[in-house]
């Protein structure tokens, strides 16, 4: 199994390390040719407007839009969630998404969050994070803050978290992506 990590900006090596923890070799993706032979793709955090510009410049936006249409497994964290939720970007998950949704005072914070079906909470690291107010009928919220903001969700083969699992030692989200999305798709 090969999983790519979009390597235009953001915490690329941390995602590669998490995949390694799951026993999977990751490959940095910088060009359309790097997508060949992959079974799944991770979109790291960073700044979604910058990543989008780089995707256009590197001729990666159209190939990624095509992969989304084909139901290819993609896991987006933070800015990756933003790109997957924007209809004009990757259009991979429907919902009302609020960018930088926690405002200035809570630009960055950490919170233990409960994930549907998991016995132990997951430590969420939020950095200028987005959230979903609501998700579409085809999407399923996986984690919701006590105030109702949706911070992890899945729609078909698209998994998104508003927080950064790659910045913790806990690789359960990467494992979930591999077991529930990548393995069932390939
Ligand atoms: N840590 C992050 O990925 C921040 C995301 C950023 N605020 C955006 O909207 O793109």
From TrEMBL:
<dbReference type="Pfam" id="PF01174">
    <property type="entry name" value="SNO"/>
</dbReference>
<comment type="similarity">
    <text>Belongs to the glutaminase PdxT/SNO family.</text>
</comment>
<keyword id="KW-0663">Pyridoxal phosphate</keyword>
<keyword id="KW-0378">Hydrolase</keyword>
<feature type="active site" description="Nucleophile">
    <location>
        <position position="78"/>
    </location>
</feature>
<dbReference type="GO" id="GO:0004359">
    <property type="term" value="F:glutaminase activity"/>
</dbReference>
<dbReference type="InterPro" id="IPR002161">
    <property type="entry name" value="PdxT/SNO"/>
</dbReference>
<dbReference type="GO" id="GO:0016740">
    <property type="term" value="F:transferase activity"/>
</dbReference>
<keyword id="KW-0456">Lyase</keyword>
<feature type="binding site">
    <location>
        <begin position="127"/>
        <end position="128"/>
    </location>
    <ligand>
        <name>L-glutamine</name>
    </ligand>
</feature>
<dbReference type="GO" id="GO:0042823">
    <property type="term" value="P:pyridoxal phosphate biosynthetic process"/>
</dbReference>
<comment type="subunit">
    <text>In the presence of PdxS, forms a dodecamer of heterodimers. Only shows activity in the heterodimer.</text>
</comment>
<dbReference type="GO" id="GO:1903600">
    <property type="term" value="C:glutaminase complex"/>
</dbReference>
<comment type="pathway">
    <text>Cofactor biosynthesis; pyridoxal 5'-phosphate biosynthesis.</text>
</comment>
<keyword id="KW-0315">Glutamine amidotransferase</keyword>
<dbReference type="GO" id="GO:0005829">
    <property type="term" value="C:cytosol"/>
</dbReference>
<dbReference type="GO" id="GO:0036381">
    <property type="term" value="F:pyridoxal 5'-phosphate synthase (glutamine hydrolysing) activity"/>
</dbReference>
<dbReference type="GO" id="GO:0006543">
    <property type="term" value="P:L-glutamine catabolic process"/>
</dbReference>
<feature type="active site" description="Charge relay system">
    <location>
        <position position="164"/>
    </location>
</feature>
<dbReference type="InterPro" id="IPR029062">
    <property type="entry name" value="Class_I_gatase-like"/>
</dbReference>
<keyword id="KW-0808">Transferase</keyword>
<feature type="active site" description="Charge relay system">
    <location>
        <position position="166"/>
    </location>
</feature>
<protein>
    <recommendedName>
        <fullName>Pyridoxal 5'-phosphate synthase subunit PdxT</fullName>
        <ecNumber>4.3.3.6</ecNumber>
        <ecNumber>3.5.1.2</ecNumber>
    </recommendedName>
</protein>
<feature type="binding site">
    <location>
        <begin position="46"/>
        <end position="48"/>
    </location>
    <ligand>
        <name>L-glutamine</name>
    </ligand>
</feature>
<dbReference type="InterPro" id="IPR021196">
    <property type="entry name" value="PdxT/SNO_CS"/>
</dbReference>
<feature type="binding site">
    <location>
        <position position="99"/>
    </location>
    <ligand>
        <name>L-glutamine</name>
    </ligand>
</feature>
<comment type="function">
    <text>Catalyzes the hydrolysis of glutamine to glutamate and ammonia as part of the biosynthesis of pyridoxal 5'-phosphate. The resulting ammonia molecule is channeled to the active site of PdxS.</text>
</comment>
<dbReference type="GO" id="GO:0008614">
    <property type="term" value="P:pyridoxine metabolic process"/>
</dbReference>
């Amino acid at each position: 199994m090969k999983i790519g990590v979009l390597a235009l900006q953001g915490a690329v090596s941390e995602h590669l390390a998490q995949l390694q923890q799951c026993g999977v070799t990751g490959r940095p993706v910088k060009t359309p040719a790097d997508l060949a032979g992959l079974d799944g793709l991770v979109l790291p955090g960073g700044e979604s407007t910058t990543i989008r510009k780089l995707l256009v410049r590197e001729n990666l936006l159209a190939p990624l839009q095509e992969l989304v249409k084909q139901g290819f497994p993609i896991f987006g964290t933070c800015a990756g969630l933003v790109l997957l939720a924007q209809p004009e970007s990757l259009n991979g998950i429907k919902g009302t998404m609020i960018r930088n949704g926690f405002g200035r005072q809570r630009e960055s914070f950490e919170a233990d969050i409960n994930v549907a079906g998991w016995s132990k909470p997951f430590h969420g690291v939020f950095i200028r994070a987005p959230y979903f107010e609501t998700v579409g009928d085809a999407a399923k919220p996986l984690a919701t803050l006590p105030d109702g903001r949706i911070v992890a969700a899945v729609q078909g083969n698209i998994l998104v978290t508003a927080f950064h699992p790659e910045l913790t030692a806990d690789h359960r989200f990467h494992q979930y992506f591999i077991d529930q999305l990548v393995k069932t798709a390939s």
